[in-house]
Each structure stands twice: as C-alpha cells, then as structure tokens.
Amino acid sequence: MKKEASIITDFSKIESDFEAGADFAQLKRDTRRIIQEIKAIPYGTVASYKEIGNLAGLVNAGRQVARILHSLSYKYEMPWWRVIGSDGRIKLTGPAKAEQIRLLKLEKVEVSELGQVKRQKKS
Prior knowledge:
This protein is mostly helical. The chain contains 5 helices and 2 strands, in the order ααβααβα. It is globular, with a radius of gyration of 16 Å.
C-alpha cells in the first residue's frame, strides 16, 4: 500500500518538528540557541564558528559551536558543511574535509580544493 506524500502548508510547525523528535527541550539553552543558528544558515552561504556563537548571543563560543557540531549535527540534522573557520578556511581534515568541499560546491559556494572559501561581500 502506497502512502501519499504530504505537502507542508503550515510552515510555523517546521521548527518545532525537529525539536520535538530529538529531545531538543532537554538540551541547555545555549546549546539550543547554537543549533537554531546553525540550522538558520541559508543554502549557498557559510558562517564561521565565531559568527554562530555571536548570533546565539554568546561570547567566545567558537569551540562550543565546534563541539555541538561534532556531537549533535546528525541527530539534529544540522548543515554542518556550512560552518567554516573565521579565516574562511575549512577546519576539518581528511575525508570529512573532502566531503565538506563537495557539499559546498553542490550549493554553488566557491571553495578551493585546499578548503579556502570565497565569502560573499556584505552590501
């Protein structure tokens, strides 16, 4: 028996869907804020660990952002590949770096094979 695909018409429920299914409320407030900022990075753009921490209202939270990405990115379906260092370089190594480059290129982000990302100038 085939299930019909549903079309999302109430977009206000999208954010709470990922939160409810993965014990989101049990996380610390700062962790929730960081996850929300990472999930808000638009397709085809990148943000640095530091920028995400600042957007979440935290000071010097770059390492905290990295730890959250490392431990929770798959559980909360975060676009981990859109997060780079503040110097514009990919900080991952080995196969993970190659995968991040591949995913960014799929989103039409300019990135060298060495992992240097060309950021769009803010107008």
